[in-house]
Amino acid sequence: MAFAAAAIVYARDGREHFLAILFGDVFLFADILPKVLAGCLIGALITLILPRELVARWVGHESGFTGLLIAAMFGFILPGGPITIYPVAGAFLVMGADAGAVVAFITSWTLIGYTRALVWELPFFGADFVLWRILAALPLPILAGLLARLVVRTGIASKPDA
Q1: Cα-atom radius of gyration of the chain, to the nearest Å?
Q2: Same domain, 61 and 22
Q3: I need a surface site. Which of 53, 63, 70, 130 has the fewest CB within 10 A?
């Protein structure tokens, strides 16, 4: 599909436009690659720093509702972008976290993450808006984690392999 799209752009817009897009994409790739590598390194280091037993006990299959709360709390407090968060989530899976906890972690980071609220929302929307938005979103990571556990338990989706 990428080659077909490139051929269409080349035929429709000419060589100059094609090369401008190509070089822009190459520069974007070169800019993102070190960040992706750093995120993967962070994920790998987490597997070395945190004991597997600790992760399995706190957010593993037997952690119950408390495991979802802990995972959601970590999603709330962990700063960074997707290039950092997703390798960390993958590391948690490798270390014994269950799918529900990882879904709660990612959902909490996405919906409630404090860094986004402080840097972007508070200056633009004010404290009242941010507070009400966070309060409205609080149950969603837990609900998403419970749903993920149910889906894996019923066999609708397989257990994620990390």
Answers
A1: 20
A2: no
A3: 53
